[in-house]
């Protein structure tokens, strides 16, 4: 294994509150005091394993069952709020982060699909495969009804192929620009002919499939879509492409070649098992002990869900949906098949104002309860309040000068949080 | 270190902070600067991006060309329906708004616009149009962003304004002053309590990384522009002009109001999405073209009524055109060269750049005969009167398009 992914050893650099909080901010959402304390007392090994645990908490699971009935009512706005509420409640925040990550990778929009049950079905497919082998996920996505509608594969038929899906399989889902030619797209499209859907179910339309020989990325054969997926994943470019995307999501906005190569190698050696790869990244000394000093700008979902989780605000589904949408991330409606660009592209003057105004309304809202938090965590002095505010937001490092705060401890907490959540550092993770 | 707002204003007058000193000017000074703005008489460019790859052949239709009719058995616009312009080319029947502008001598079509080695990825091609560079991944800014950086003076109102639901386009990305992006005038307001936060952010002296500095500057600029726009919004009052009920029309109405109120920007940028018509194109494409043509026509009427028409030029573009042959799903796949529109009393009306040559294709797509950078160059030199070479390098403005 590359030296870059040398495992972290708590014996050399202790697993303390600051490391645990920083670790959770990057693998999960901005954590609550409870999550930080639990991580410290559980130890590093158990905290890492906990990220990959299957079973979720009861609040989450009860809510989970409401997905299908909401989707059947064709209410995509309610379904969006339901997804965000699950993110706010989950005890498996990494699963939540990954679901949004893959939704952005296989970016499909309800604006064209126009079926909430199909969008939910795609989300379930993504959640089922999020940690697993990438090949299984891409094969499942190629049969996903929402994807078939989104990229017009219903119209991809023998004799007159529609290139839309094949193009994005190469450009956006597996290889990236420059690793294939237009010829591969035209031939690849033939392999996906007849892959259609009827009433929200995948259907292979034998009569429309082109059984002839195709030449894709240097291989020749009477390929179908599954073959094209396998051929694409076997290209050297695929491991680097997926490695880069994972690193951009969890480590830094512009990972260097060395790091990409190390993670790509990890992907290849695990047969593109995402879980194994993430465990190697999150378990490395580079990640835990010496985080890169070039953090990423948080997505709206990370920003909003982080605020409500760390401040333990019981926000309504509709509020979460409105806030993230206004900040430029309307789940189930990415702007194009390329998804959201991320990092600096999240922020412009409009979305920045929404973040600043949103922080003010969150701490003023009666769903934020300073006195409950103070008694829960025994915050009885101004210093204790100040330290807590810092811990659940930006950690020890901020350059913002805090103005004098009110003496009343509840008011003090609100005031401090308003400044800390508006600090430039809070936009990064 | 604790600092009050007043102390900060006093201290930063010398320009000691990282941010332009105008960031913290008291409101009355900002208002004075606004009233005295020399840009009240300046020329304005409105860019409308057609996102998704507009089918140029069904927008400006070669309706007497047999090859066109053969390639488009279900999608073709017949010669009875096309709205004739000149040289046997006509507009899609849903573009009566543009036909009226053409008859008024305000509409110029520039045909066959593209670039060498056309890229058929939406994103790569859009980036090429946005940066005016064939290797956009190496560009840090957009072509209009470069103009913004060259023309912005500290404390002045923004040179460009993005008004859209979409994210800020690469075309407007700058190295220095961030281009403000708003969804609408009403949606762009700062909560009153946030002025203390604004001061605290502005007062940060050093930032550890470029990204932190980026966030800090953006936060301060956003607060400042929110106060500016709020001021302008108070001045403009309601608009009485008639616009159709489209999102594009609603945004153009606000652009007309902002220009009318003497708000600073010389460049406004907005978009209309949905042109990626791979399947069942006929219905959606017509709807989009109608939204475009009717919205722009209403905007032109509004500008004319306000006496502003001579000061405003409108330009449309899309990342590529579409393939000549329609596909099995009664749609069209990604193509190459396509027409652009210019609407301006200073441009020569008519069809420039010739008819599309359907006999001489490149990979089944139209070859370009006009490089889009020469269209940009003309807009910069002849309309905005800025140094096009500094923005685009050696591309000479396309001849014959502008009167001057």
Description of the molecule:
The complex is a heterodimer of chains A (429) and B (404). Helix content of chain A is 56%, strand content 3%. The two termini of chain A are 27 Å apart. Chain A has 24 helices and 4 strands. Chain A is mostly helical and 429 residues long. In chain A, strand 1 and strand 2 form a beta hairpin. In chain B, strands 1, 5, 6, 7, 8, 9, 10, 11 and 14 form a 9-stranded mixed β-sheet that branches. In chain B, helix 9 runs parallel beside helix 10. The termini of chain B are far apart. Chain B has one domain: Alkaline Phosphatase, subunit A, CATH 3.40.720. By secondary structure, chain B is of the alpha/beta class. The N terminus of chain B is likely disordered. In chain B, strand 12 and strand 13 form a beta hairpin.
Task: Describe the structure in brief.
The complex is a heterodimer of chains A (429) and B (404). Chain A is built from 24 helices and 4 strands.
Separation of termini of chain B?
Answer: 58 Å
CATH class of chain B: Alpha Beta
Computed CA radius of gyration of chain B, to the nearest angstrom: 22 Å
Q: What class would the helix/strand composition of chain B place it in?
A: alpha/beta
State the oligomer: heterodimer
Strand tally of chain B is 14
Distance between the termini of chain A: 27 Å
Average pLDDT number of chain A: 95
